[in-house]
Amino acid sequence: MPWPSRKRDKGAAADKKEPDAKIAKTEEETPDKEEEEKSTKPPAGSSKSGWKNWKKAKESDSGGEESKITYCHWLLKSEPESRLEKGVDVKFSIDDLKAQPNQTTFWDGVRNYQARNFLRAMKLGQQAFFYHSNCKEPGIVGIVKIVKEAYPDHTQFDQKDPHYDSTSRKENPKWSMVDVQFVRMTKRFIPLSEIKAHHLAHKADGGPLKNMMLFTRQRLSIQPLTAEEFDFILSLEEEKPH
């Protein structure tokens, strides 16, 4: 019996304004039933000092050279609270991942073409933030790594699964999944509100989170991160929450 599907949040529709170049013209984007996180007011104060301190440390490490913008890390959204979808509970928290054999599972049920293409771009050993979504306080709770690259998502062929796709064929599957393994919890919970405060400040001063997809393409359950975005968020572990 397959594990419950995890990775998406309720209520969001696919964004068709920026179709992915790899999507066949005959395909229609399927809603990625993920809730756009409700905007929360950022905490008082500015992140500029934190960004400048982080930048100074990074420049010291790299000799001041700026890295090329490439996506080599990821953010994976999952729902930590029970919610039924076609009679199946899609809850899957980081504790559920830790309880799996070898703390490893497949990341199934993605039904948005851009998110699927991000899955297919993942490479063995790359790390991702595990993000609790569609809950009272969304945010980053841990780190996982890719332990198996993209392969066909079996739930697309299972008529009993809430993510069954009658239009997908086994000889040419539409949907993919990867295997992920728990690495560690983050040193503290990093809430969406705190990340948003840095994002807003970085939009003004050119910091690494200025174009973070968590705020520019909120509805995607699979999101790429640049090395700068990933490293900056990791640096927040050491800061006391506001």
UniProtKB/TrEMBL annotation:
Subcellular locations according to the entry: Nucleus
Biased composition (Basic and acidic residues): 10-28
Transmembrane segment boundaries: none
Chief location category: nucleus
Entries under InterPro entries matching the protein: 5hmC_binding, EVE_domain, PUA-like_sf, THYN1-like_EVE
Entry GO CC: nucleus
Keywords of the record: Nucleus, Phosphoprotein
Superkingdom assignment: Eukaryota
Domain EVE: 73-235
Region of interest (Disordered), ranges: 1-64
Gene3D superfamilies in the record: ph1033 like domains (3.10.590.10)
SUPFAM superfamilies hit by this protein: PUA domain-like
Keyword Repeat tagged: no
Composition bias, Low complexity: 41-52
Pfam families cross-referenced by the UniProt entry: EVE
Role summary: Specifically binds 5-hydroxymethylcytosine (5hmC), suggesting that it acts as a specific reader of 5hmC.
Protein name, UniProt field: Thymocyte nuclear protein 1
Taxonomic lineage from the root: Eukaryota, Metazoa, Chordata, Craniata, Vertebrata
